[in-house]
Amino acid sequence: MQARSVVRRTAALVTIAVAGSAGASAARAAEPPAPLRVVAGKASPAGRHSVQPLTFTVRGGPNGLTCPVEAELYRPAGATAAAPVPAIITTNGFGGNVAGQRKFARSFADRGYAVLNYSGLGWGRSGCKIALDDPDRDGLAARQLVSYLGGARTPGQATPIDWVRRDAKGHDGVAYAHDPRVGTFGGSYGGGFQFAAAKDDPRIDTLVPLITWNDLRYSLSPDNGDLGDGVTPRSAGSLKTLWSVGFFALGLVNGAQGIPVDLLGRTLVCPGFVEAICAGAVLTVAQGSVTSGLAETLQRSSVSSYIDRIRVPVLLGQGQADNLFNLNESLATYRALRRQGTPVKLIWHSWGHNHGRARPGEWDEAYRSPTYEGTAFLEWFDHYLKDDPKAPSLDFTYFRDWVPYGGDASPAYARSEAYPAAPATEDVQLSGDGRLTADPARVTAGAPTLMTTLLGLPTGTTSVDLVQEESSNSNIPGTFVSFTGDPLPADRDVVGVPTVDLRIDPGLGALTGPLVGDPGQSTVYVRLDDVAPGGGSTLPGNQVSAVKVPVDGRSVRVSLPGIVHRFRAGHRLRLVVAGGDVNYRGSVLPTPLSIRIDPRSPSTLRLPVVPAAAQGPIVRAAVPAGAPAPATRPRAPRATAVRLTRRRVSARLAGAARVRTTVERRVGRRWKTVRTATVTVRRAGRATVRLRRALPAGRYRVRLRVTRSGTRARTVTTKALRLG
């Protein structure tokens, strides 16, 4: 048996050498790096899986930077070299650590997936600083963990991982030495890392990013004017004060807490963040919009700048209650992926950064009961990682809070083949007398005027960012204008991104804008209220659009944040344009701004209304119609005539195969494994495994797991055998 092992290793080395001479040297040169070191703790059994704590040392960026990374590796019971399993890598959201993904990791390990759960750089007990999922830092770290799962030999490791399934080639058609079958999962900051890793790693097979960003410049300092079908702002935008300051403060505190973890790499100079973010953040808060230097850093950490590098299937999930990364961000990513032919599915769910808890039946990380998203995630991974022939529908689904259901929330979700779900928009015009009207003949000319405030002070109240509660909407008289429609004769279900054309006189911005640039432009805040018959109003999704007023007074098309909302019969729509908002840093100088209404060129509000008949039921994964039935793979060769002596196990094999032998001894009422060995048999005949130590007298049984490429495994278990 030892001689055969030497022959196998020699043959493998010869094969690699021949492949290199045939032109694979380029692939080897591009081989992604492995971790520099790993310290592995003791694996602990936990039901149907085991958990092993790991501490990696990885390359973390430029100038030879190295970072410690805390992680946990979940191994399903029964995962072996003869029966390898696919893997999932997951990490935390902003402010979290490895503990936040444990429920997910346990659930998927119990369903036959290896899960590598780790704290992102700068979080938990991982070192180095927060770089906002920079591909050259956070992405680099994740790519090394992919290599580890792919069996890359890592100093400090007893034996390389051989129980994770391997792929013959990456998605670029190149063969890599350490290419696991692996997907990624995570939300928010744990969604951004997935794009950062996949940008330069064609070994990653699929992504499931939730409630994450497309362009951080838009996320933190948006300008919703003339966006087209993306979200990249045309200016420095208007700073989301509470979100930006809150995140920056959290990062600083986290950096200080990291002193015992990585004093030099995580805390000194600027606690928590890489220096470029620290310097830009201070100036950004001072001026109320993103500096050019920080904008470059944010762009580098945004998938919008490298979306063409994402070529593997993506399941996007985005929250309807999220004014940090709103629905428009997922649409920008979704549209870009569809344009380039990347398989993509889009789910709009109820929960997000403004309401972190999913509705009952939507998503439960522990998989205690069936949920819509839980099933969707499992179907997705099963298809793309386990080759389940049931393919998920590459569609667009959305949660409707007006639909009653019990248990699984699937009935509350509606489906469209793709976005947009609305076959067309319903258009209403703004009138100079403050009305919204569907009849162009009723539009009157006018120029209603509002006033901005000094130093960007808010002009009223809407719901407050960072607080997961809704509040009433109000504005100081004179600081806003509004346009209100008639009571609706029937329900209107709006699903998507409303837009409105506005022509605004720039006020003092016509002078200060050309002199000092973006900070000199005036900013307005546009929202769409739902007004009840009694006069009370709600703000769907707690969403407001910040818009820089063009200094030349031209018309601008404003993209409101996407919503999924039923405006009920008898309610009225109200479009509000305000001079300030409690969640944003507004205009520096107070100035009057007029909304110019001209019946000859009306300002139009476009609503993506989806009729009830177009709100189809969800579709579960299924074998595509017309697809050939999956071929039944033949079984591995038979193993018969199993014999056991004190020093050897033998069996007759019907053909070449790989055989894993397990010898179990009866101890009390249980069978205890006492010997294991794996041997490769080159031809039919009797195969023998010699045991290193003689077996003592007792009752034994032998398990043989016989595998061969392209076949289904065959397991043989003997009856109890007595050794005297």
TrEMBL record:
Query: What span is annotated as the signal peptide, if there is one?
Result: 1-29
Q: What is the designated name of this protein?
A: CocE/NonD family hydrolase
Q: Which UniProt keywords apply?
A: Hydrolase, Signal
GO molecular function, a single term? hydrolase activity
- Keyword flag Hydrolase: yes
What family is this protein classified in? Belongs to the AB hydrolase superfamily.
Q: Looking at the keywords, is Cytoplasm present?
A: no
InterPro entries from the xrefs? AB_hydrolase_fold (IPR029058), FrsA_esterase (IPR050261), Galactose-bd-like_sf (IPR008979), Xaa-Pro-like_dom (IPR000383), Xaa-Pro_dipept_C (IPR013736)
Q: Which Pfam families does this UniProt record tie to the protein?
A: Peptidase_S15
Tell me the Gene3D superfamilies matching this sequence.
alpha/beta hydrolase, Galactose-binding domain-like
Residue intervals of the Xaa-Pro dipeptidyl-peptidase C-terminal domain: 378-606
